[in-house]
Every structure is written in C-alpha cells, then in structure tokens.
What does this fold into?
Amino acid sequence: MSDDHVYLTLAEGHEDDTRWAYGTGFEDPLHGVDTTVPDGLDAAELAASCVALADDALVSAQRLAEWTTRAPELEEEVALANIGLDLLGQARLLYARAGQVDGTGRDEDAYAYFRDADDFRNVRLAELPNGDFAFSVVRLLALSSWRLAHFERLAAHPDPVLSAIAAKGVKELTYHRQYAAEWAVRLGDGTAESHRRMRTALERVAPYLGELFTAYDVRDEVVAVLRQVTEAGGLPMPVYRPLPGCGRAGEHTEHLTPLLAELQSVARAHPEATW
Amino acid sequence: MVSVLTDVRRARHIAEQVPDPELPMLTLADLGVLREVSLAPDGTVVASLTPTYSGCPAMAEMRADVAARLAAAGYERVEIRTVLDPPWTSDWITPAGRRKLTEHGIAPPGAAPRHPAGPVPLVLTTTRRAAVPCPRCGSADTEETSRFAATSCKALWRCRACLEPFEYVKEI
Ligand SMILES: [Zn+2]
It folds into this structure.
C-alpha cells in the first residue's frame, strides 16, 4: 500500500475484495461495534424500523444507480451516484443492525438479496421508475426531506446503534436534500419546458406522499420544506390524497419485482459466490 | 523489556501512519478517522476507527491495513473497533492534513456547519457559501461546479483566475 497513486493502488491484486461498494460477501459493516440491545427495547419493533429504513435506502440507491450513463450531465451523474452510495451505506448498517436484534442473525446479503418484493417494507415512492430528471428530482426532494427529518429525531433513539447511524445519516441527507431542492427551484424557475415537467413530476409524486407520513410523525416539517421549495421555484404545492395499499405493509407497485430481479440476479444465480 | 506505555505509543504511531486509501497523501491520523489506540489488559492492541461517510467503501480496507501493519510490527493480538458515535466531521482533519491537501491541489474544508438540536434548516440563497480559495494560485475568484465528485467527501470547483479545476473536501 505504499504506492501513492490511488488508481494504481486500486488496480493491485488483493486477497480480499473488501474495497468495492457493490457486491456481496462483505465484512460486517458493524464490525467491532458494541451491538448489545439495551434492556426494555422492543426488539421486533426496532428490527422492523431498521428494515423499513434500509429498504427505502436500498431501493432508492438502485434507482439512483440507474441514472449512471443517462443523466443530463456528467456532474449530475456523479452526484446521483454519490447520493446512492451514501444510501447504500446506510442500508448496509441498518440491515446489519436488524439481523442482530431480530434474533435471526441474518447478514446484510440475506436481507438485500434473498427476500422477495412482498417482504420489502419500503415506501412505494422509492420504487417507481425514474421517469425524467424532473421526476427523479422531486422524488429525491420528498424522500430526502422525510428521511432527514426522521433521522434527526432518530438520533435521540434509545438504541445506541440506530441513533449513531441516524446521526451520521443526518449530515449526508442534508447534502441530498440541498441538491434536490436547488434543482427543483432551478427547473421550476427555468424554461417553460422545465417548469411544465416539474409540475407534471409534482402531480405524479403527490399521491405517494401520504405513505411517508403513516409511520412517523414528521409531516409538518416535510410539508414546510416542500412549501419553501415550491414557492421559491414558482411551483404549485402538491396536494396528496390517500392511495390504496401501503409499501410499509409489503403492498407494492408492479415496479418493485423487476427492480429486485435485476438487483438480486447474480446473488441468486450463484448463492455462494462473492464478488 | 519494553514498557507497556512505550509499547502502546509505538502501536499508536504505527496505526497513525497508515495512509487513507482514497486520499493517500493523508494518514488516518491526518484525516481524523483513527480515534484511539489502546492496550487491553490481556495485551491486545485495540485500534478504533470511525467511517467518514456511511457508504465509504474504504472503511474495510482501512481496518485491514491497520491490522496488517500492527501485525507486521510484531503485535500478535490486534482488534479493530468501529466507532459510529460521535460521527466523523471534517473538522477532525488535522492542520498537517489540511496543509498536505493544499500541497496536492485539493482545497481543505472550512468549518463544518453546526445546527442546534431540532430540524435542519434548508437554505436556498445562491450566495450561501463563502468562496473556497484556489489551492494552486490562492485566488478567491472560484466557483463550485459540482457538489459531488469522485468520492463522497469531495466537491468539484473551478478557479476563474488560473482556470484550473480543483477538488474540495466538503464540510460535514
Ligand atoms: Zn487558481
């Protein structure tokens, strides 16, 4: 490792493949963390919260990764991939925590690669296809605003591991929300075409907003952020109506199964393989 | 016979010198990710590391590097712990680390934003951030071209004076 050129260092042969962000067979992301569950915590509830938050992050990361080679500019491609990588990191930590507390001892791969769509607890907004850049911006704005508000509260959670994951996530999500908010304003306040696309995107996202507010009470804060951004971009505030079904209960759109099929294909074809 | 105190100092020194996999001009100590090196009563060297970002793919490599270097230095029992709390902040990059970043054409971070407890405010003004001085020519006439770059911890900037693009370690 004395080579001072990072790309040469990356190209060297290594016995362990622990350096890559995508793949399987990683070392436990909570390696060496004190993983005791405090007395008096409902383990099943804690595990369920971790899985739902991890599923939101994993599914979002997969959609964000799909922008690679397709974003309007290289800078946006890099930005969306970085946001996805942060979320993937959060998902790994949350799955690892879930496996410790739910008594199954499952690792992150078991959650990510070997569950079917109806076992996933992500909100449906995360799994919808990317659509155009405006739709992805509005979705990211909604999801990151909600997740930031929720994580900010979870930082005071009695489980020290979840609380630490959330406190770290707050810093990352602040950047994600900022990115989405600035693009939302820029597109809303841009050309007639970008404004029209933003209105369409807001209408498409609106029905799915209610689902974000079912489990955790950060609605007012998220609504305030959406109002701030839409006003700055000269856009109408989305009006949401309840939509039948709930991703948090495992009821998903037809889009999740193909997303998972792609995500899980290699792990399922070669269950013992690591890459 | 080496005293325990000297020995833990030596172990700390070895761990401190391990280079960061993504910013190899910095040691783990410069980056502020090596939180503690101590000696357990049974003689195990315990090194504590904290990740910069949740998705940092270099974390496992850092753990492996520290363990390998300590083992090579003759420490038979080594344990690497991950510390998640408090979360890493760019404020922990040492003055030496900041100097090395600048020498390598990377602008070091300013002070990390501090929010009181409660909702994180969203600020939408375009003149929100102070200019980052160009690490090559020192000019303050610079602009952000992308808040995200080749790794999570960096943004892309451009200098309007010398026209060079440069990377900038983000405040977090
Ligand atoms: Zn310059």
Observations:
- The mean pLDDT of chain B is 89.
